[in-house]
Structures are given as C-alpha cells and as structure tokens.
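FYI - complex with N-(5'-phosphopyridoxyl)-D-alanine, inputs then prediction.
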Amino acid sequence: SIAYLNGEYLPLEEARISPLDRGFLFGDGIYEVIPYYNGKSVGLVPHIERMIDGLASVEIKCKKSADEWKVLLDDLIARNEGATNNLGVYVHVSRGTDVKRFHAYPENVEPTIFCFTFAIKDPEPVDREKVHAYTVTTSEDLRWKRCHIKSTALLGNVMHFQQGHASGNSECLLYNANNELTEGSSVNAYIVKDGVVITPIQDNQILPGITRRIIIDSLVADGSIKVEERNVTMDEVYSADEVWISSSSKEIAPITQIDGKPVGNGKVGPVWEAAFRIYTDAKF
Ligand code: PDD
C-alpha cells in the first residue's frame, strides 16, 4: 500500500524513520484510526478534531489545519483504491526526531507525520442471529490517568489486550479502583439493562471514542432507545441484559461472554440489533 511520510507518498515497506524519533524512543506521539467504507469516511471531522486537540494537549506543534488533514487523508485513501475497498487509515504524529535522547520537549523539531491504510472488514450484518459476537475477560485498569489522550504510548493497553487474547478472548474490559467499568483495552464499553443503554461518562479514564459519540448522538436523535452516561459498577456489568463494545474498526459489537460466563441469556440481544440499525443509518 501507499503510505504518507513527512510530505511524501511512498510504498509502505519503503518508509523509514530515525531511531532517534521520539515516537520510537518515548511513545511521544498522538494517533488516530479512521474508517472509510468504499471511500466514505465515518466521523472524519471529529477524528481530526480529536487529534488536533490531543496534539495541543501535549504541545506537539503540528501546523496542519483540519482542512489540510482532510485533503491529505482523502487523497491517501484515493491512492489506495479506497473507492472500491473498506480501509482504515492510521495517522501518527510524533514529536519528531531530536539529536539525542533527552526527556524534555526539544525546541525547533518538526513533528513526524506518518499515515498508512489497511484493509478493514465489511460492516457486520444488522442481524443478531448472524453478527459475530465477542467474548471478553476483565482486569483492573492499570493504565495511566490520562486515558482521554490518544497517545501512541500504548503498552498499558497492549498488556491488557494481551490478557484477553492469551485466554482466547478478543478484549479485556477494565474497571477502576472503585470497581467501576472504564472501557476495554481498545474499545469503549456499554451495558443494557431493562432496555436502557448505559455507558461510563467521558472523563480522564476513557478515550472519548468517536464511535461512542456517533452511537449516543444517533440514539438520542432517534429517540426510541434511552441512553444514560453515568458510572457503571462491575456488578451491573455482570448482571446486564446485554454488553457491547465500540470502536472505529469494530463499530458496535455485542459481547456474549465475560470471564467465561454468559451475558444475559448468552445470545446477542434485541437492543443491540435496534441500536446497530440506528447507528448504521446515521454513521455517514
Ligand atoms: N482504538 N478506547 C480505546 C482505549 C481505544 O484505543 C479506542 C480506539 C476506542 C474507541 O475509539 P473510536 O471509536 O474513536 O475508534 C476506545 C483504535 C481503533 C485502535 O487503537 O486501533
């Protein structure tokens, strides 16, 4: 595939960065993953805005405007035959390459900008008998206290994801010291109880997911399913009728097992199907 690196387009396998890049040495960068289905993006503007906010919050001085980002990403998708494929675009802005390894932010360093595309799966069928359901484990959330920043320093997330993966599950749901759900290692999380969708509030313990925003906004606009943003205890998670996760690559995905125990009746639930239909109609 064709990648973008610091103003140039080149085959991905030819892209090279310095080992002194702070993204490599410190995980000192901000990233995004944006889905495009047959050339149509989902949440492009909020993804770009979240990245610009994240860069500002860690003082990475990237001069690209939201409009310039949009042109760059749409162009990269077009160069990778995005019109007839489902592609994710990965966008990575590191603080740049210094002349030495020194923790303080360097002066006069240009950020490194790297983007590439990768194939993503077709959207799931809006059918609870046919959709792929996921199973998850759980763990205390041992990441940092700035989970709202989409940092490229993902070792905490990677370690939690591996906990789920190593035991044959596809995610790990995380809870804080108060036994409240935060999110998954690479996804936001939701429960459904008595027809109400409940998801943890957007604070420093979770990533402000773009898919989460589209889900909440589309359900509120539709009006047929009630949504609450509030703290969710793990007892509520274990006794929920349905549990879902969401991300740019998974859209809304149902969870049918937590730590080997069934969620609700162990089948994908009707609220998932109704919500996924509403989301699917609203996402572009
Ligand atoms: N993951 N929470 C975490 C910790 C995430 O890493 C992600 C995204 C989300 C969902 O956010 P969004 O709906 O904006 O994709 C929540 C991306 C896809 C990744 O790291 O690959």
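The CA atoms of residues 28 and 105 lie 10 Å apart. The chain has seven helices and 15 strands.
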